[in-house]
Amino acid sequence: MADLQHDISTTSEVGVDGGLPDDPFGKEPHTSDGGLLAQAHALLADHPVADGYSGLPWALRHLPWYDLELGEAAVDTDVPRMREGHVGVLFWSLHLPEDADGRRATAATLEQLDQVRAVIETHPEGLRLVRTAGQIIDARNCGRVAVVPGPAHAAALDDSLGILRILHALGLRVLTLSGTAWAGADGLSRFGEEVVRELNRLGVLADVSGASAATAERALALSKTPVLCTRSAARALRPHPANLPDELLAALGEAKGLCMVPLTAEQTGPTVRDVADHLDHVREVAGPECVGLSGTYDSGAVHPRDLADASRYPHLIAELLRRGWSEAELSLLTWGNVQRVLRSADFTARAAQHRREAPHARITELDNS
Fold this sequence. Notes:
This protein is an alpha/beta fold. 41% of the residues lie in helices and 13% in strands. Strands 1, 2, 3, 4, 5 and 8 form a six-stranded parallel beta sheet that branches. Strands 9-10-11 form a three-stranded parallel beta sheet. A two-stranded antiparallel ribbon has the order 6-7.
């Protein structure tokens, strides 16, 4: 899936405003059934959605004025719609411009972290910046949507573990391992492996969506904390390069990682049923403890019909209820699996910081030796 674009306009729902064509067989059955939809709202009230990827910070940079607490029609995500959709946690992508590399990538990521903080500070009644699983619970108890900064692109590190530590201190909690000399088609270099160890020591989660198979497999083998795929569906159902083949889904399940299925027509298909098919498949191959949701709203993507914005999660949950998903499985999908992964990262980091000092090795020392 293409990353965020420089000029993001309001994204389209499939079949609406220039999106993909409508389902030729007409409206989807069942998902609007009042009983199932009421049941979905009740379930989400107890187990809100942890959304694994949002492009909102970058989208807001293009608006001269906005109010997320009142409501903002120019984007897919605002506080009223998140409350209607029962969104409890939102991972905010730290987008890089297409021409950013090296120090420019670092500066762009720092600017995005500054944007995240500014947005949250101007919307204190609706949003709260969080760093740990416990702080997410606190935010929920206070009626706030918890914001987790990340994923950020690996290029933001500028091949420096020190920069990684600075980004972590400023709030970064997810890093995507792709598109660098040390995390490329051939997998992780020695420096790349050191990055993964430092991510574990800091409590930052590794994201392998869009990474090469070699990088993903090595990260899964090396990481002491669960690995994320923040925007990956099932390649067996739709051959998109960011989607995961079954062998990698199975490996992710064995490692207790988390595949967060994106709600985009490009990766999952044009209907709610298509998204549900991917969720069914990932659940079957990786297990119910290893599947999550990734709205990818405000990323420039086209979304399936009935999933146009952050308010529409109950329609997806209603379809899964129709398919026989249990309340326990749905509670893991929406909330429990993300909490497990974040708690694991927190626990591993506390233990590792007692055993391991901060490394200072440079890429030239490890990869050129």
